[in-house]
Fold this sequence. Notes:
The protein contains 6 helices and 7 strands. The protein has helices spanning 14-22, 24-39, 51-54, 59-67, 83-86, 90-128, and strands at residues 45-47, 71-74, 77-80, 139-141, 150-152, 166-168, 174-176.
Amino acid sequence: MTWFKVDDSFHSHTKVRKVASKAPAALALWVLAGSWSSAHLSDGYVSDDDLPWILPGSEELAAELVAARLWRRVKGGYQFHDWTQCNPTAEQVRTLRTTRAAAGAKGGKSRGRRASKGQASAEALADDLQDPPSRPGPFLPQEGRKGPALRAVPDWCGRCNKDTRTEVDELERSVPCQNCHPRRTA
């Protein structure tokens, strides 16, 4: 997605004030056409054929923008005045999109490897959380003891979410269930 950028002093520019006093709807056309031009990567060019699709009946408003020198009349349409001073060119946008797509694909490949490992552990956890359990459940180290002494985590209590063993508190946050996670505090 590309943004159509408007200078924060646009409202007070003499050209804009002149149009606003004579044909304020022309400024709406200017904004809509700017958004359309960014979306279509036209570098601020709006053809005569596209103008009615942007704002029906806008030919007279376009003439007001040309008279105020916010647009220039060019062969087959209109060109925003100084488009590239505030907005990226179509080529710059395409280059950025290509760069981001390549980076995303590269990151997606590494995330895919992590996701497959995470999926395996999620499946193992789902097996551990079966009700009734088909095998002994997960174990936690016992507090206050040295060495690998373990204690069993209680079976699913039935009060919380069976898959995540979380519940929703009074502030609508997801918190660990105190019955299923006795060592954790909310």
